Amino acid sequence: MSGPAYDELREHVWSRDHGRCIECGCVVIIEKGYWHTMHLAHIKSKGSGGSDVPANTRSLCLRCYAAEHAGKPVSRGADAPRRDSAASDDKTVQSRERDDS
Prior knowledge:
alpha+beta, two-stranded antiparallel sheet, 4 strands, 14% strand, disordered C terminus
């Protein structure tokens, strides 16, 4: 996937993840479609049969993305959004809203 459809997916996932890295919780910035600090990462790789759908993607900062691909553990920050990869986007958002209360 590329072009406008990919940009739309990234924006959707960024919004769903509240503009934060799903691992460490740092803020990831988007400006005019250019992603300064965010990488759209697949939960199940496309090579392993994963797809470009919101339920299979998550927001990672560049540091966490690089660590993940280097096989290094990433410490989960206190501000990291909680997300069950098997949950639907709606359930994830509802869960986060309860956590924020």
